[in-house]
Specification:
nine-stranded mixed sheet; 15 helices; single chain; Arc Repressor Mutant, subunit A; about 40% helix; globular; about 375 residues; TIM Barrel; 17 strands; binds iron/sulfur cluster; alpha/beta
Length: about 375
């Protein structure tokens, strides 16, 4: 089974907190780029690194909803022709609320998209403006309603917590409202101040009063408690799903399954040997030049040795509620998890839970994930 990620690195404008690879772009620029995505796909026809059928496709960005349904249909047809589909493929498109309307959403559904992921981020107009988002709270509500009306059964919404000025009551109200939108998936990310972003500049000029670590931790746990009480599965640090609606594309990533990444900045995983990570450089010009010459734009970032693969398997699995499957670990690496990480198990005794032969972090320990997971590296 194969997963395919297509990176659409264009946005109408840049959000204040964003350090993802995306540039302002619309119209002809986007059309030319998308044509090259198809050229890149065709380069791998018969390439043993990636073999079908395709089980998940993810149009990520940037703002993939800037590309038209016709173009999406064309790309999906090219994927089908080259690899074929699994029995029930999951095909996701990330969308920004201000870029869609009923016709466009209907078009996406007809093109084969069966899952939408909306970048809502907040339901407060002041916060949306402060974050530099291009939509209002009204547009966000409308876009999700229209997606429901267009017949999408799988809808995900992204929210940001830890925004200065945000308090527990507001987050509670936001969750109550969003959970009633008829969605099946919610991603809740803590705001970060990344180097080189306008938000980081404001912070260094002393214009931002950030929330304390305790307040951010409280918000994380508030979201966890609220949603899990309502039957949502907190299946990964930042992700919640109603039962049976976890994002299979992301799960494939955390389980080190084969993934082909198309477009500038896209990453791939090749499941041969102990695994290989490849990436297209994050430059539209470099990507387009390679495509005009019909040259493979990918570079190998890492070929794993056994220990590296063990570490990556453990730390990716520890992002998830299911955690590391000890039996599968033993089967793949011919080593017991405790034997491989004796000090980690000593030091993290209070942070780990053991359930049906799986080891996972407690939800409250996910707050310290970056620090704790060092024990597995
Ligand atoms: S829409 Fe998404 S990718 Fe584009 S600038 Fe905003 S956060 Fe970044």
């Amino acid at each position: 089974m194969l997963s395919i990620y297509l990176h659409i690195p264009f946005c109408r404008r840049k959000c204040a907190y964003c350090d993802f690879f995306s540039v302002p772009g619309t119209g002809g620029r986007v059309d030319l780029y998308v044509k090259h995505l198809k050229h890149q796909l065709h380069l791998y026809q018969g390439d043993p690194r990636w073999q079908g059928p395709v089980d998940t496709v993810f149009f990520g960005g940037g703002t993939p909803s800037l590309i038209s349904p016709t173009v999406v249909a064309d790309l999906l047809q090219a994927i089908e022709d080259q690899y074929g589909w699994s029995e029930r493929p999951e095909i996701t498109l990330e969308a920004n609320p201000e870029t869609v309307d009923p016709d466009r959403l209907e078009g996406y559904r007809e093109s084969g998209i069966n899952r939408l992921s909306f970048g809502v981020q907040s339901l407060d107009s002041d916060q949306l403006e402060w974050l530099g988002r291009g939509h209002s709270n009204r547009q966000a509500r409308k876009a999700v309603t229209q997606a429901n009306e267009a017949g999408f059964d799988e809808i995900s919404v992204d929210l940001i917590f830890g925004v200065p000025g945000q308090d527990r009551d507001f987050i509670g109200q936001e969750l109550v409202e969003v959970a009633e939108w008829g969605i099946t998936h919610l991603s809740c990310y803590g705001l970060t101040f990344e180097e080189g972003t306008p938000l980081q500049d404001r912070l260094s000029r002393g214009e931002v009063i950030t929330l304390s670590e305790e307040e951010i931790a409280e918000q994380f746990l508030l979201i966890h408690r609220f949603l899990t009480r309502q039957g949502w599965d907190h299946y990964e640090i930042s992700n919640y799903a109603l039962p049976g609606h976890a994002c299979r594309h992301n799960q494939a990533y955390w389980q080190r399954k084969p993934c082909l990444g198309l477009g500038a900045g896209a990453h791939s995983f090749v499941a041969r040997g102990w695994g290989e990570r490849w990436a297209v450089p994050a430059s539209i010009e470099t990507f387009e030049t390679a495509m005009e010459r019909r040259e493979d734009p990918m570079e190998c970032l890492e070929r794993f040795h056994r220990k590296g693969a063990m570490n990556e398997s453990a730390y990716l699995a520890l992002r998830t509620r299911q955690g590391v499957d000890s039996e599968a670990f033993r089967r793949v690496f011919n080593s017991d998890l405790h034997t491989a990480y004796p000090t980690a198990f000593q030091h993290l005794e209070n942070h780990l839970i053991h359930n049906s032969d799986h080891w996972a972090f407690k939800p409250e320990s996910w707050l310290l994930y970056d620090h704790l997971v060092q024990e597995f590296l």
